[in-house]
Amino acid sequence: xxxxxxxxxxxxxxxxxxxxxxxxxxxxxxxxxxxxxxxxxxxxxxxxxxxxxxxxxxxxxxxxxxxxxxxxxxxxxxxxxxxxxxxxxxxxxxxxxxxxxxxxxxxxxxxxxxxxxxxxxxxxxxxxxxxxxxxxxxxxxxxxxxxxxxxxxxxxxxxxxxxxxxxxxxxxxxxxxxxxxxxxxxxxxxxxxxxxxxxxxxxxx
Length: 205
Hints:
By secondary structure, the protein is of the alpha+beta class. It has helices at 35-65, 73-89, 94-155, 161-177; strands at residues 12-18, 24-31, 180-184, 190-194, 198-202. The protein is rod-shaped and about 115 Å long.
């Protein structure tokens, strides 16, 4: 019960066998984990990560456009064309000519503001992409190292449950960054694929 709140911990099953003369001996210890549920969770993580990134980007664009609003592009352009309409109806009026100049200046200021805002958004997106790529590469390296450690321990009969839990946590995190697909080949190996990385022959749970 103590480990239920530990992040990444998987419940373990102890296999016992009767000993000659009485008593029992621990034959094997295996993790109890629902591989189908893991697949469903990681698929949902991938979809959630994609939609969250899209929503965040669109929210930033919405804030930059300031729509609907009096200082938004639509309102500024509308006032610009209204000023020209007023000028066509009263071309001799100095106030309408001034209004056209002011409306044109507002359009120019708004266009410059949006250009700066979108340039900043692109720079921020580039930084986030580089950070995500660095994290993806780090996780991939960590998973590959864990695979090697698990394989070495498995030869000695050690199931390396703690290392497998760490690997599953890494795969859970990776699924939030990119789409992850994996296929259990047999009791000893799993093939992990994504659109950005391919880590194959992973000892499975």
